[in-house]
Amino acid sequence: MSDVVFEHGNYLKLLSITKLLILIERLNDRKMKKYFPLMAFATAAFAACTSNSGSESAADSTITAETAVVAAAESRTCYVHYKNRDSIYLDLHTKGEQVSGTLNISLYEKDRNTGTVSGIMKGDTILLDYTFQSEGLQSVRQVAYLQKDGKLHEGFAEVQEQNGKTSFKSLSDLKFDDQVVLEQSNCK
């Protein structure tokens, strides 16, 4: 999708050139033919003087290209996991390395956890803080996923609680296996 945007200065230049062309057209009258070369020269000179230098156009196109890359980097992807009577639904919004969204975990015969996630994506690894409600209390737990073949593999490692947040003791100890695998799905 591309939008055409006229800057005020460019619009005036276009309007002035149009007026000159109409005047030249009127010069087709036999009395005015001797002025035709003069008007053609004046129009060309005016257009040359009012045209932008290439650097402005290059800068504008660079900004447009950067904007397109940023817009393309924003995405929404949803994942689900169903095993036995357990279910997980993850709705991720990604903008560059920043990730946010919602995570709902429903484990059979346990309380359902519903909350938000926010964190970063580095390469194929997503590290998130999961803020959720469970048993009427708000908790924060660190979660990690590895992207592999269009799926997310949940990472597990020893955890510690510090300042009301449960987090991995060491990120280098994370193990991503096939225990909990979320598959890409349609977003709700």
UniProtKB/TrEMBL annotation:
<protein>
    <submittedName>
        <fullName>Uncharacterized protein</fullName>
    </submittedName>
</protein>
